Amino acid sequence: MRRREFIKVIAGSAAAWPLAAFAQQSERVRRIGVLTGAGFDADDLDMHARIGAFEDGLKQLGSTNGENVRIDIRAGAGDADRLRLYAEELVAVAPDVILTTGASAVPPLLKATRNVPVVFTNVVDPVGAGFVDSLARPGGNVTGFVSFEYGLSVKWLELLKEIAPRVARVAIIRDPEISAGTGQFGAIQAAAPSLGLELIAVNPREASEIERALVAFARAPNGGLITTSSAVAIAHRELIVGLAAKHQFARRLLPARISNLRRADLVRT
Questions:
Q1: Strands 198-202 and 223-227, sheet pairing
Q2: DSSP single-letter state for residue 166
Q3: Which among 77, 95, 259, 268 could bridge 31 via Cys, Cβ 3.0 to 4.6 Å?
Q4: pTM attached to this predicted model
Q5: What is the total count of domains within the chain?
Q6: Residue 24: pLDDT above 50?
């Protein structure tokens, strides 16, 4: 082979290398981790609907679970220790990206990795929680979507008073270990005196604590109930709704993910 022909062959092969590498990369199965602070059992219609919508969105982008993408789902069900374990498990399988739902799922992931991209949803204050540097420039390996700001929490209290004017005492179910728990409660607490309302903070970590606190709260009349954003409230939403109906609390059951259960506005007299 002449020198000029040899150079042409080598040059042509070299030019094809990036295309071949791209083809191999695009054909490999992408891996997506999903970590939620709530539960994910067969009866959780709300979470199944959300995961289904996520998979539908991926299909529209050309990615189908079980074909060219694999989705690994872990659910903490309101248990902080379980969330830490699952965060480490997901990072260990080297996913391309991890999707989280709720503020409680982000800290264990940040402890487990600073390299794998993390996208959060349903987080109220990612800046205050230290997840991102700012909304405009998140920085690091974390970004996502903000659900609402703390001032909206005041509207929950105002609506509660509007639908049940006799309410005098309001139990606030919150998780004080996440920024949403302290921030939303702070906004509600600041507005309570102008509405003539007494607030009682309920800081449960498990179902038995929720039941014990609400049963004790129900011993006095004219009680109302608000749930702030937390994995604990979502994981035990059926229990909360059941207790609220049983004791006929005036209630504003939030966040919106409780919406798969019927809401009712009742007053305990």
A1: unpaired
A2: T
A3: 95
A4: 0.58
A5: 2
A6: no
